Every structure is written in structure tokens, then in C-alpha cells.
Amino acid sequence: MQASIIIFYCLAAMIIGGAILAVTSLKIFRAAVFLLFSLIGIAGLYFWMNYEFIAAVQIVVYVGGIVVLIIFSIFLTHHSGEDMKSPKLARSIFVAIAASSGFALTMLLILQHQFFASSGNVVEPTVKNIGTQMLSTTENGYLLPFEVISILLLAAMIGAIVIAIKTKTKA
Amino acid sequence: MLHSKIIALVPLLPFAVFLLTGLFGRKYLKNFSGILGTLSLLVAFVISIYTAYEYFFIQGRDANGIFEKIIAFKYTWLQFSPGVSIDMGVVLDPISIMMIVVVTFISLMVHIYSMGYMKGEERYATYYSFLSLFTFSMLGLVLASNIFQIYIFWELVGVSSFLLIGFYYDKPSAVAAAKKAFIVTRFADLGFLIGILILAFYSGTLDFGTLIERFTTHNEYYSAVTAASFMGVSALTWGLVLVFIGGAGKSAMFPFHVWLPDAMEGPTPVSALIHAATMVVAGVYLVARLFPVFSLSCPPALEVVTYVGIFSSLFAALIACTQTDIKRVLAYSTMSQIGFMMFALGVSGYGGEHGLGYMASMFHLFTHAMFKALLFLGAGAVIHFVHSNDMKDMGGLRKSMPITHITFLIACLAIAGIPPFAGFFSKEEILAAAYANNKPVFVVAIITAGITAFYMFRLYFNIFWNKEKIENHSHEEHSHGEGPMTMLIPLSILAICAIGVGFIPFGKFVSSDGKELITEFNPMFSLGPVVLALSGILLALFFYKKANGKSDKVAEALGGIYRATYKKFYIDEIYLFITKKVVFNLVGRPAAWIDKNIVDGVINLSATVADNFSEAIRPIQSGKVQQYAIYFFIGALSFAVLFIYFWKN
Amino acid sequence: MNAIGLPQILVVSTALFFIGVYGFLTRRNMISMLMSIELILNSVNINFIAFNKYLFPGKLDGLFFTVIIITIAASEAAVAIAIIINLYRKYKSIDVEDANSMRF
Questions:
Q1: Cα(B382)–Cα(B455) distance, rounded to whole angstroms?
Q2: Residues on chain B touching A98 (C-beta within 8 angstroms)
Q3: Would the pLDDT of B475 be above 70?
Q4: How many structural domains is chain C composed of?
Q5: In angstroms, rounded to a whole number, what is the distance separating the alpha carbons of residues B272 and B164?
Q6: 3-class DSSP state for residue B87?
Q7: What is the ipTM of this complex?
Q8: Closest CA to B81 of B219, B205, B197, B211
Q9: Which of A165-169, B249-253, C21-25 has the lowest mean pLDDT?
Q10: B152-206 pLDDT tens trace
């Protein structure tokens, strides 16, 4: 028990710390690396909650995919070692106050609220269960969203290629 | 069967043609539009005739010996309150059936005639679409079951009349005439609208049947409307007089007549259809529709109708004697004849023998439509041939235009009231009705009838006789004959009608209370008017048979009177004086000042305020995405706080 | 009983969310903004999983939503980066304030 609590706080610190550094660091490459830590922390949180499948997806897609994509685009658009323009101080303070008040408001609501778990039999988030349900057409099946999201992904892929493709400039 | 909905086709067919030719005419249908319009009207005419046949002969009279009023169908369009609603309906009773027959028949004739007359016109399809629109509106008007429905179609005929008068819109005079017609009739229609509102307010209904019933029997509505008064005149009288003003505007009664002569700027077949046979009798029809109320509950209003009618009749007849534009002569003659119909209604009583005037008025409307359409179409043929409207350019045309000559002569005899032509019968009955009820009116009427004969034959002799030589040198070189068959056939058909329709025993079909009214032919009574008419004709023969200058001498002798008549008694000038000098200076200028300085000032002020305000808030629209995102975020947060903490019921 | 429950996880996810918002509103570099958006999406994912685990253990709906959101995030990142690269080619800059030719 005790170990689990310690692990949770470590993960939380990693997530929040990584996130804060990711949004404040002036070197964009470092920011991307901090984002990577934060995302790994989130994957760890999923492990901690026993959602191994999602944790795996998180690592594969975010860490292995999106962050790599971001780093590539950084290479394409930045000269290494260059600092980003720092945000305007007034705006930073203003936004920080607004975000903190939003955070405070949300916290207030969360802490005041009584959560009630629904009873009933527990479905373990095993890969078998997930696979069966995701690809079934029965009551709780997710086949249709699955297909839709596949098409979306395909469309996004084609779209990304079409947008980024180098058009031949008119001679 | 009568109750079938097929009657709805009568107005809807022209409407469909209007849409078709209006939308696709100029590009796709072109010359086919004429045939399309004519065919649709032929169908409508056949349906009308069939309906009339069924109504009068198959269905016949009910147990009380009256023709039942049939609501063929009714569709509530706008419901204001229980009882007060604007309905779109079709009502069948003797006068509406008579009117649809007249309208479809004349319109059919005009459609056929126009195929020849308007041939080669660039906007041929547009012309036919306007004609169809007019026919649709007029049929909707006569079939209306609801006073507001009449008003709607009333305005629609006004619009289509406006469009057709201004058909040659590159001619400034045509544009001015169209505007004049529209404005003058609009002005009168304002009275009509107020009248409708007064009547509807007190009767609590817009439906004709209910309205007539509530105002002619003793009940709370009747006592309310007679008790309420304004300037010593009861609300009912006000309402009816205002409605009559609307009718007078459309029917070109004094003092709203000024638009009708100018309306002759439109194509001649249009004048025949709208400004002679159908639309201008709408006022008569309206009074006839409300006749029970006028007659039973409100004799003062009926007196107004009588005196306006008889005055307009004499007034127009006098002017017609001096005009030289043949269409204007016909226009004034139309006005005069409508005056006859009006005062015939005015002197009529309700029911039985007293209802003679009502029946005579409707009869005259019917016969007048035939021979006046014939006159106009004949005049159209003459104008087509001579390329001028002015009598001075005509003369001796009887040999080059034999058919037009004969038919025109028939029509002149009919309007002059010579037996056995149609006008004789209806005019005799009007005179008889006037004689029975109002002697002074009778005297004026019989004089007017004599003048009518005189000016019609003045017109006839000037066109077809007189100056024989002119034809020899001016028309030979470009003589294109009398006109195509499409123009001659309607003339012939109408001529036959102008001879024949007088023999229809009209009293059997149309009477004020729906009962049969037997009219007796009284040769002794007829003698006077006929002799008077004949002397009018002889007078015209004496002056105008040959170009002899006799008429000019008389005109000189009469001097000022002649000039005043020629200038139409300066009515137009008086209107111009009132509008230009009085209204513009006393109302127009102050209004313009207020408009410029106060109304515009307010607008400018608000514009300046808005301008400054927008300048002030412009930086918010910076075009910077992140700034927008901040607004969005703050907004979302504020809404969250608002809905969670401050929006609790 | 587990001492760490739903509220603690929600605290983490909420903090992550507002950090993402802060980053999105202050960063002027488009790639950094994209990274902030990823943080926001991740905070939502944590919420879904946490609610699924603690409130509705009998279902897997939250998990599926997470999967779908991850997919959408991937698509969105791909398209966004394509746009960013295109903008960079055109303006030689990926500062949001420089991309203002559609402003008026």
C-alpha cells in the first residue's frame, strides 16, 4: 500500500513537473523532451491504474509517434540552440492568474463533489476484453466508432500529405 | 358538379400561365406564349360557361325561388381572432358567375386579338404574362368570398394595370400615366382599406355573407355600428362611403377619374380588357356585392353612389364630345357608362320590383363589356392601320377597313341605345329604374344618353367618313390591309355579342334578392330615349359626315365652354395645383426639412456614435489568434462561474 | 482501502489541463502551442481512464474514448504539423503573430 502511494506521487510530480517545464522552457528542443517525460509519466499513471493496454498505446502513439513527429518538425523549422522569443510578461501574468483561478474553481468543485461508484460486476481491462468489445456489434460494441476513427485517421494522413507536399511553383 | 373544385381552375390557369410565361417566356416560349395564354383562357372560359350553365339551369332555384349562394371552397389563410379571418375562397352567385363569364370571355377575345396586334413586339411574352396576371387577379377578385380577399386581388389588378399601362416603358408619357393610375387608385384604395377596417371592426367578420347578414338584420352588431358616429354620420355610412371611394377610384368616378384617360397609353387591347370591360367595373361590382347593406341599412351611402355616378356620367359625356384622341373619347365614354351603372345601383331598391336598378346595372355591365371591348378593339385596329391616335389623321376609312367599319358601327349603335342592339335593353332598364325612383336623376341620365349617341357618332363619322381624300395619298403606299385574322375574328365575335346579348332575359338570372325579376318591355317609355339618341346621331351626321367646318364654327361660338370642356374642365390642372403648390409647399417642404435635419440628424448621430464606438473596440479584433483564445478562455470560465454559482433557481 | 483515490488523480489531471491552457495562451511558437494542446488532451484522457476505473468499473467506455482521443490527437498533430511546415515555407517563421495575412 505504502509503495503504491509513493509511486503515485512520484508519477504525479513527474507529470506536472514535466508539463510545467515543457510550457516554460525557452529552448524548444528541451521543451519537447520535457513533454516526453510528462507523457511517459502519464503512461506510468495508466500502469499504476492497471490499464496496461492504454499505457502501451500511450507509449507507442505519443512517445513513439507524436513526440517524434514534433521533434522532426522542430528540426525542420528551427536552428538548433536558438532561444524562442519569451512571452510578454504582462500576458504571462494575466494568463497565469486566469489559469490559476480556473484551476482553483475546478478544484473547489471536485473536492466538494461526492463521487459514487456504480456497483456491479467488474470488467477487467484485459486486452482480450478490450478487443472483443471494440470489434463487436452487440450492445456495447464499438465497431462503428472504430471504423469511423480509422477513416478519420486515413483522411488526416492524406490531408497532411496534401497540405505539406511541395507544390511546383509556376516557372 | 357545381360543388366540385374545378372552378378553382378558372383563376389558377391564368396564374400558371403567368408564372410560365413570366419565368420562361422571353427565353424559351417566345411566340408560343400567346398561344399558351389563349388556350388556357379558352379552357377557363369553357369552364365558366359550363359553371354558369350548371348553376342556372341544372341546379336552378331553391325552394324559395332564389339562386343559392354557393361557397365552392374556402381556405382560411390568416386567422386574426375567432370569426375574423382572411379566407381565400370561391363564391358562386349570379353576379360572380356573370362576371367570370364576362372576364374570361373578354380576356379570351383580347388574347386572340393581341396575337395579331402585338405581333413582332419584342416583349411579347412579357405582355402575355402581364395579361395572364391581370386575368388571374380579376377572376380572384370577382370570386372572392371575403372582403379582404377582394382587397388583395383589388391591389393585384391595380399592379397588373400599372404594368400594362406602362408596358411601353421607354415612352415617358406611358410611364407617367402608369404612375398616375397607380397613385390615384392607391389613394382611393386607402379609403377602401379604412372602410374595410371599419366594417370589420363593427361586424367582427371579414366574410361577405356574415357581414351582410349582421348589418342587415337587427342585432347587436347592427345597433353598434349605427350607434357609433363620427361627425354626425354613423360608422356604417362612413364605412360604406369609404369602401365606395375605393370602388370609385378603380371605376374612375369623379373625382378619381383623372387616371383613366391617361391609362390609354397602354397597348390598345389592354385598354379594351382592363380599362373598358373588366377592371374599371370592379367598383360597380364591389357596390353590388355589398348592395344589401347599402340598400337596406344605409340609404345615405347609396345616395352618394347615385350622385357621384350621375355626375361622373354627365361630366365624362361632355368631355368626350371635344376630345380628338379616339382612345380618350372611348375612355371618357367608359367613365360615363360606368356612371350609368353606379347610379343605377344608387336608385335601386332591394327586392322585387324596386330591385330593377340593380339588375339593370348588372345587365349594363354585361352588355357594356361586350360593346366597349368591341369599340376598343376596333379603335385598336384603326390605330394599327393609321399609326395614330388622333382623329385628325383619320377619315374615310370605311372602304379600306370594311369589317372594322361594320363592327364599329354596331358597337356605336349599341352604346347609343338604338334597338335592337344590346345597349338599348340595358340602358332602357336603367332609365326606367331612374324614372321610377328619382326624377332629377332620370332627366340628367336621358340627356347624357343623348350626348352619348352624339359623341359616339362624332367618333364614328370622323374615323370612317369625313375627309375622304386623305386615304388616297397617305395610306396607299404602306397599306397592309385591315389586319390579320386574329384581329378580325374577335371583332366579329364581339359584334355578334353586341347585337345578341340584349335579348338575354337578364332578370331571370340576376336580381338584387335572387328572386326572378320579370321586366316588361314598354315601347312607349322607350320612345323618348331612342328619339333623343337618334337626334344625337343626326346631329353628329350633320356636323361630321363631311369635312365642312360646321363643327369648328360651333366650337368657336361656344368659346370658353368649349375650351373648358376640351381641357377636361381643368381637373388635371386643379390636381396639379393642389399637389404642386399646396401640398408641396405646405406639407412637402416642412417634411423635407424635418427629414433632412431631424430624421437624418438622428441617423447621422447614431452613425457617428456607432462609428466612434467601433473605433474604440476595434483593437479587440486584433487578428491575433492567441488573444482570441484568451477571450474564449476567460469567457468560458465566466460562464462556468455564472452558471454554477449565480444561476440557481 | 486505497489511500489514493479519484480526487487525487483529478487534481493531477486538472493541473495538467491548466498548465496546457497556460502554455497555449502564452507560447508564440506554433509547435509549442501544439505541445500544449497535447497536454490538454492527455489530461482529458487521464480523466476518462480514472472515471472508468473508479466510477464505472463494469464498463470499458472510458477506455474506448481514450483510444479514440489518442487517435484524434495523432491525426490532429499530423495535420497541424503539415500546416506548420507549409507556413514555415511561406513566411520563414512559425510565430503565430506572423501568420496574419487572413486577418482582415
A1: 18
A2: 630, 633-634, 637
A3: no
A4: 1
A5: 12
A6: strand
A7: 0.89
A8: B205
A9: A165-169
A10: 999 999 898 899 888 888 888 888 888 888 888 888 899 899 998 888 888 888 8
**Residue C40 in domain:** yes
Task: Report pLDDT digits (tens) over B413-468.
Answer: 888 888 778 888 888 888 888 888 888 888 888 888 888 888 888 888 888 877 65
Residue B601 corresponds to which cell in the numbers above? 440628424
On whether any CB of chain B is under 8 Å from the CB of C101, the answer is no
B87 Cβ partners below 8 Å, 6+ apart?
B74, B75, B76, B77, B145, B146, B149, B206, B207
- 3-class SS at B168? coil
Map out the domains of chain A with their CATH numbers: 1-85 (1.20.120.1200), 124-171 (no CATH)
Give the rounded distance of the alpha carbon of A73 from its chain centre.
18
Count residue pairs from A and B with Cβ separation < 8 A. 14
CA closest to A92 among chain B residues: B630
Q: Which of B369, B364, B339 is nearest to B427 (CA)?
A: B364
- C85 lies in a domain? yes
Residue A23 has its nearest CB partner, among C9, C19, C61, at: C19
Distance of alpha carbon B458 from alpha carbon B179, whole angstroms = 31
pTM: 0.65
Q: Is residue C77 part of a domain?
A: yes
Whether residues A87 and C27 touch (CB distance < 8 A) is answered with: yes
Q: What is the residue whose three cell numbers read 372576364?
A: B103
CB contacts, 8 Å: B626 with chain C: 24-26, 28, 33, 96-97
Pairing of strands B70-81, B84-92: antiparallel
Per-residue pLDDT reduced to its tens digit, A36-65: 999 999 999 999 988 889 999 999 998 888
Please give the torsion angle defined by the CA atoms of residues B492, B493, B496 and B500, in that order, rounded to the nearest 10 degrees: -170
A169 contact C CB<8A: no
Say what angle helices B439-464 and B402-416 make with each other, to 10 degrees: 170
Burial class (CB in 10 A: 0-12, 13-18, 19+), B51: buried
C-beta atoms of B624 and C25 within 8 A = no
Q: Percentage of residues in chain A with pLDDT exceeding 70?
A: 95
| Residue B75: its H or E element | strand B70-81
- B269-309 pLDDT tens trace: 888 888 777 888 888 898 888 888 888 888 888 888 898 89
CA distance B624 to chain C (A): 6
At B85, give phi and psi (nearest 5°). Answer: -150, 155
A101 near B CB under 8 A: yes
Kindly state whether B625 is in contact with chain C, defined as any CB-CB distance less than 8 angstroms: yes
What per-residue confidence (pLDDT) applies to B531?
A: 85
Q: Which residues form the domain of C56? A: 6-100
Q: Would the CB atoms of B630 and C24 count as touching at under 8 Å?
A: no
- Does the residue C1 lie in any domain? no
Does B328 score more than 70 pLDDT?
yes
Pairwise CB contact (< 8 Å): B623 & C104: yes
Q: What is the CATH number of the domain that holds C88?
A: 1.10.287.3510
